[in-house]
């Protein structure tokens, strides 16, 4: 199954972006990333996407590694860092879709 992961970090920092992408690759080596850009609706935030082909066990494992409390609607998972435990303290938002 193909997944798309939307990641928003709370700073516009290339160093922080590289650190977060490195941690994501440690959790899921199959991920490939889009170029990042400033997040248009949040001040001083950066966003990027990751995609991968994973089986259902790999998806479940990745979800458990990224956040402790997902909001789920079928194949859509969302989490905000202000009320959940993210895998990195500067991750503001995650949205994982199973396509």
Strands, helices and their partners?
Elements: E1 2-9, H1 14-27, E2 32-33, E3 37-38, E4 46-53, H2 56-66, E5 71-73, E6 76-80, E7 91-98
Antiparallel strand pairs: 1-4, 1-7, 2-4, 3-4, 5-6, 6-7
Notable traits:
2 helices, alpha+beta, 7 strands, 99 residues
Please characterize this protein's 3D structure.
The chain has 99 residues and is an alpha+beta fold. Helix content is 25%, strand content 36%. The protein has helices at 14-27, 56-66; strands at 2-9, 32-33, 37-38, 46-53, 71-73, 76-80, 91-98. A hairpin with a 7-residue loop joins strand 3 and strand 4 (46-53). The chain is globular and about 35 Å long.
Q: What's the Cα radius of gyration?
A: 12 Å
Secondary-structure content class: alpha+beta
First-to-last CA distance: 7 Å
Described by the principal axes of the CA atoms, the overall outline is globular
Q: On the 0-100 scale, what is the average pLDDT?
A: 96
Percent range for helical residues? 25-40%
């Amino acid at each position: 199954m193909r997944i798309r992961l939307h990641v928003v970090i709370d700073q516009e920092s290339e160093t922080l972006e590289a650190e977060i992408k490195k941690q994501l690759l440690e959790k899921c080596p199959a991920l490939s990333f889009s170029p990042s850009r400033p997040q248009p609706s949040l001040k001083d935030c950066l966003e990027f996407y990751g995609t991968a082909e994973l089986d259902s066990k790999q998806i479940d494992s990745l979800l458990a590694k990224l956040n402790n409390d997902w909001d789920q609607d079928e194949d859509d998972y969302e989490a905000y860092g202000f009320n959940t435990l993210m895998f990195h303290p500067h991750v503001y938002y995650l949205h994982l879709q199973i396509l």
